[in-house]
Amino acid sequence: MRPSHLLLAVLVAAVWGVNFVVIEIGLDHFPPLLFSALRFLAAALPAVFLVGRPKVAWKWILAVGLFLGVAKFGLLFVGMDVGMPAGLSSLVLQIQAVFTALIAYVVLGERPNRIGAIGMTVALGGIAVAAVSEGQSGPLTGFALVIAAAACWGVSNVVTRKAAAPDALNFMVWVSTVPVLPLLALSLLTEGWDRDVAALRSLDWQGVGAVVFVAWIATVFGFGAWGWLLRRHPASTVAPFSLLVPVFGMSAAALFLGESITPLQGCAAVLLVGGVTLTSLSGRLGKPPTPPTPTPPPTQVPPSAPAWAATDPDLAPHPDPDPLDQPPPRPEPSPA
């Protein structure tokens, strides 16, 4: 990977990590489902008029829009709104790699190898430690909602793989059009018209900045750059950079929100990141080495042939055949 591509991958991970802090700030200005709806509305407009027509079937766009946009981000925003810390959310959400592997096994028949199974076990141990840590400081409702969000993200990952979109930016922009109306409807039903209108009337520059960041920077730029990298490098090379997201997320939360990292959370981070690393790289690590291709023997040419004859035997002069090696001539038939 070129240094510029390496820096881009780290930048995307940093943007996605800091995004959890920005979500926390946005939740101070909007109800969670309304905030998520505004996020996808800003991501879709005006980009949907610039990226061209969808390049995959609408069934894939609708499926990813519902599982990723409505379910995953709706649950994440609600979980953070009811008390799940931003830094811990960035960490726990990475269990999506385990859900992705399990769902791919059920739906696609992709059986994890021994390394992948060990990785999933270690990651689940990290989630258990994180649950104990969160249970000591508050209710587990937010924690459970973020776990559910990770499971929905795993479903959307498998659907995205089935969709095989040739243009990640085009796909993500069209996916962003799907969640807007369902999230607005859910917001009106559960958060109420009065609360939504009050949030929009009191809109200030911090609220606008939060929407712009999570929509254009984290969604459009983040997923577009990630897709650009995946088109130029193997997934096994790009995917491990996502493990930097909780590093940036927990660091940004400690720096900007004053969230402390307890020893239990540190232990959970080590287990979860280590387990996700093994799960993500299991296909690459468990694959047997490719046997080397045998090298064909060099072409034999006569000593008198020029040097270039060894590289192009079709142009090499061939020696005159030995008359002793030729079959005897056929006798001419006698005339009748």
Describe what you observe in this structure.
The protein is built from 14 helices and no strands. It is an all-alpha fold and 336 residues long.
List keywords for this structure.
336 residues, mainly alpha
Question: Hey, roughly how much beta strand do the residues contain?
Answer: under 5%
Question: Main β-sheet, in a few words?
Answer: none
> How far from one another are the termini?
82 Å
The helix count comes to 14
Output the helix-strand order.
Answer: HHHHHHHHHHHHHH
Helical coverage, percent range: 55-70%
Structural class, from secondary structure content?
mainly alpha
Low-confidence stretches: 285-290, 301-318, 332-336
What general form does the structure show? globular
Number of strands: 0
Average pLDDT rating: 82
Radius of gyration: 29 Å
Helices and strands, with pairings:
Blueprint: H1 3-27, H2 32-44, H3 58-81, H4 86-92, H5 96-108, H6 114-137, H7 141-163, H8 168-176, H9 180-190, H10 193-201, H11 205-232, H12 235-238, H13 245-256, H14 263-285
Summarize the structure.
The chain is mainly α. Helix content is 67%, strand content 0%. It has 14 helices and no strands.
